[in-house]
Structure formats: structure tokens, C-alpha cells
Design brief:
Structural class: alpha/beta
Number of strands: 15
Strand order of the largest sheet: 2-3-4-5-6-8-11-12
Helix content: 40-55%
Radius of gyration: 21 Å
Number of helices: 17
Strand content: 15-25%
Length: 447
């Protein structure tokens, strides 16, 4: 059976500057928080810092040539904030500006549409030195940075995302402690998240005022949750997990409110800025699309605790970063989002599956598990479109092997293209999944 996707469908790949650029100390780039912390703790990256990567900064023309061979018509990437503003909110680095012009020109020359994130995890270190996102001045710093990017690239980039995965940029560093600055302070996390949401609204408003005809939204990780049993408490716990993990930021950004089921708990209710609802109502600006990162689903069960009275039930089905793959669930995730936020275009901004190195480089080219992942998820995307849901694109994570910031370092393999990190030149070799995705794109359907 052929599952045909629309002719104007965006087949893409996704990555981010901090994860594949390298060149962390070149051309006036400032220190970012990942770079700073992992220089001090290089074991996070197998005794290398973020400079030891795929070197996309220097090899982007070679890589875009490979993208052209793959046949994609869209590439999601991020601008490194610390390349544009390396040392503070007032100093613009022209070399950084020029680099992204060159990158964008190369993409456009090859008929590859750019979708650019303004911020994908790599917070400039100078922001953290000044109090990070907990400092209300962050809002102005971010909007000023966005204005510079819009001024420079607004006529080249038709799709913008303000922030990638607030859970990674807010909860992971400030509440859960497994990303820099490694804090466990829910009050600070909620304050930081609130400032990020206000920065998003002001950035969207600015983009519209500047008169560009493109689209702007935000990218969130939609982690699907099912009740571990049919028991009412487990079912309610699963809904609460979705409200906390997937909907906390998206409700605020797309509906102007925080989820009530989460606010019922002192853990969040007593640790949120006092005038949060007034802030949301006064600053709310409608976005153009929902960016959905989807990696799977979890079974959730009720348990009494001091947080939100639930936990993830044990599962043997996990990938290298702990995600629990569930291809069928992509339909459920889109269905829930469409019903919760009607009227928004939906873009699958990330989806993929990774493994740790299990053998040698030649053996690792045979990534049948990734072929199955792409096939099954694109079937799910087809079902969404057949149901009338406005899904306009699918971006595979990722094009090149990358560094993963949850402590995986350079070993998790997510790339359609293998990067041989043992070679100084970082040799690229397409995997089996590259040729499978190429075939799907050229035909316009998945079987």
C-alpha cells in the first residue's frame, strides 16, 4: 500500500548549532553555557568539549551538497546566540552575522527552505553571569537579539521558532539539574519559564511589526502519556503528566493560560510568579504554527509523592537517551494537539531514534531500526493528514551524528549521515537510512 504525502509537504532534517557546528572558539564567538560547563566537565562529552563535533561550521557546503543529494526541501537549524552577541547585549559580532548569511545563501541556492530557531539550548554565558532567565532583563536581551536576526535574515528565513523545547532550556537546567547550570529550584525554573514565555510573545509581536510575510512559532517536546492501567487514578496521572511536561508551556503560549490540573498542586502553584495570569493576558500574541518534537510515549501510574502524584512505569522499550519509541502514538499526539489548540498549522520538527555505538563504523551503517522508525512515523503522519489535520512537514532528527546534551556525549548515533569522530577531517558516510529516506522523498510516499 502507498501512503502518499502532499506534493507541497516539507521533507526535512533538523539539528542545532551547538550540537554540530564546532568552531566554538573561532571568529569572535563568545562562550555559551554548554561550552563553559562541559569544558569544566569534559567527561560529559567523552573528554571533549563542544568544539569536538561534526564541524558543520566549516563543512556546511559539503553537507548541504549531501542534503541536496538526499532530496530534502527544508532544513531546521539554529543560530548560535553567542556568535551574534558574544560578550553582552550591546556588542554584535559581524563575523557571526556573515557566517549565517553564507549558510542561508547556500541553502537557498540548493532549494532548501530554512526553518531557524533563535535559541536551541546554547544560552550565552554572559546571560547566565547576569542571572540567566531568572533575570527579567532576559526578555529585553532576547528580543534585541531576535531583532538583529530578523533585520539580517528576515527576508531569507520563512519559518522561525523562538525557542526549542522549553523543557530542555528551562526545567532541565533549573528544576531537574541535569543540564547546566545544574540547579534544582522549581521556583527559579517557573520564574525563568515565565520570562521565556513573555520573551516569546514580544518576539512574535516584533516579527509582525517588522512586516515579514513568514511564520513564527515555538518548538515543544510533546511526550505522550498513557495510563499504565484503566484505573481512574492512573488515567488522571497520565493526563497530569501531559499537562506538566507537554502542555505547561504550550498552553501558555497558544492559549494564554497554564494547565489547571498542574496548578492544583502546591509544587507548582506555590512556586509561580504572583501576577502570572495578568502577564499572560496582557502580553499574549498568537503564533503561526506549532513545532512538535515527538520521540515516543510513556506509561504513567499514580503514586503519592511531593510533586504531582505520578511516576513513569518501568519499560524495556527505550532508546539510548531514554525515550520510549511509539510510532503509532504520533497520531494521538497530533490529534490531542489539534483538539487542544485548534486552528494552528503543525510541523513535526523532530523525530528520530538513536543508539549507542555497538560495533565498528562499517557495521553501524546498517541502521535498519532507523529505517523502520522513519517508515512507521511517516505512516502516522499520513494518517494525520488523511484525518484532516494540518501537518505540513516532517524533520528527521538528525542529518549528522551529533552531540546530545543529556550526558550522551558523542556516542548516541541519530544521524542519517555517519560522522567518523576518530578522523580529524570528520569523514561523512551516508547510512542505509539516508538512502531509504531519499527514496521516500523522491517518490513522495511511504509503503
Amino acid at each position: 500500500m502507498k501512503f502518499c504525502l502532499p506534493k507541497d509537504f516539507k521533507f526535512g532534517v533538523a539539528s542545532s548549532a551547538v550540537q554540530i557546528e564546532s568552531a566554538s572558539y573561532e571568529d569572535g564567538k563568545g562562550m555559551d553555557l554548554w561550552q563553559y560547563r562541559y569544558t569544566l566537565a569534559p567527561q560529559m562529552f567523552n573528554h571533549h568539549d563542544t568544539d569536538y563535533g561534526a564541524d558543520f561550521y566549516h563543512k556546511y557546503k559539503e553537507d548541504i551538497k549531501l542534503m541536496k543529494e538526499l532530496g530534502i526541501n527544508a532544513f531546521r537549524f539554529s543560530i548560535a546566540w553567542s556568535r551574534i552577541y558574544p560578550n553582552g547585549p550591546d556588542e554584535v559580532n559581524q563575523a557571526g552575522i556573515d557566517h549565517y548569511h553564507d549558510l542561508l545563501d547556500e541553502l537557498i541556492k540548493n532549494d532548501i527552505m530554512p526553518l531557524f530557531d533563535l535559541w536551541h539550548c546554547d544560552l550565552p554565558y554572559w546571560v547566565e553571569e547576569r542571572g540567566g532567565l531568572a533575570n527579567p532583563e532576559f526578555i529585553d536581551w532576547f528580543v534585541s537579539y531576535a531583532k538583529t536576526c530578523f533585520t539580517e535574515y528576515g527576508n531569507k528565513v520563512p519559518y522561525w521558532s523562538t525557542v526549542n523545547e522549553p523543557q530542555c532550556n528551562i526545567m532541565a537546567p533549573y528544576a531537574w539539574g541535569f543540564q547546566p547550570p545544574h540547579e534544582k529550584n522549581i521556583k527559579k525554573a517557573n520564574l525563568a519559564g515565565h520570562h521565556m514565555i513573555l520573551a516569546h510573545f514580544k518576539t512574535v509581536k516584533l516579527y509582525r511589526e517588522m512586516g515579514f510575510g513568514g511564520k513564527i512559532g515555538i518548538v515543544n517536546h510533546f511526550q505522550l502519556a498513557y495510563g499504565a492501567t484503566t484505573d481512574e487514578k492512573d488515567q488522571a496521572a497520565a493526563e497530569r503528566d501531559m499537562d506538566f511536561y507537554s502542555y505547561w508551556y504550550t498552553d501558555a503560549i497558544y492559549s494564554g493560560r497554564y494547565p489547571e490540573s498542574v496548578l492544583e498542586y502546591p509544587y507548582m502553584r506555590d512556586n509561580i510568579p504572583e501576577n502570572y495570569q495578568k502577564d499572560l493576558e496582557e502580553n499574549f500574541v498568537k503564533s503561526d504554527f506549532i513545532g512538535m518534537n515527538y520521540y515516543g510515549a510513556y506509561n504513567i501510574r499514580y503514586t503519592k509523592n511531593d510533586v504531582l502524584d505520578y511516576e513513569i512505569a518501568p519499560s524495556d522499550s527505550k532508546d539510548v537517551l531514554g525515550f520510549s519509541p511509539n510510532a503509532a502514538g504520533i497520531f494521538d499526539a497530533v490529534n490531542l494537539a489539534v483538539k487542544r489548540y485548534p486552528g494552528y498549522e503543525i510541523v513535526i520538527t523532530e523525530n528520530g531514534q538513536g543508539k549507542k555505538k555497538w560495533g565498528n563504523y562499517e557495521e553501524e551503517l546498517e541502521d535498519d531500526y532507523r529505517v523502520a522508525c522513519i517508515r512507521q512515523h511517516l505512516r502516522g503522519v499520513w494518517r494525520c493528514i488523511e484525518a484532516g489535520y494540518p501537518v505540513t512537514g516532517y524533520y528527521h532528527w538528525t542529518f549528522l551524528d551529533t552531540t546530545e546534551g543529556t550526558g550522551g556525549g558523542y556516542e548516541p548515533m541519530y544521524g542519517l549521515v555517519q560522522v567518523r569522530f576518530d578522523k580529524e577531517e570528520r569523514t561523512r558516510v551516508p547510512r542505509k537510512s539516508f538512502y531509504y529516506y531519499k527514496d521516500v522523498i523522491s517518490k513522495g510516499y511511504v509503503e
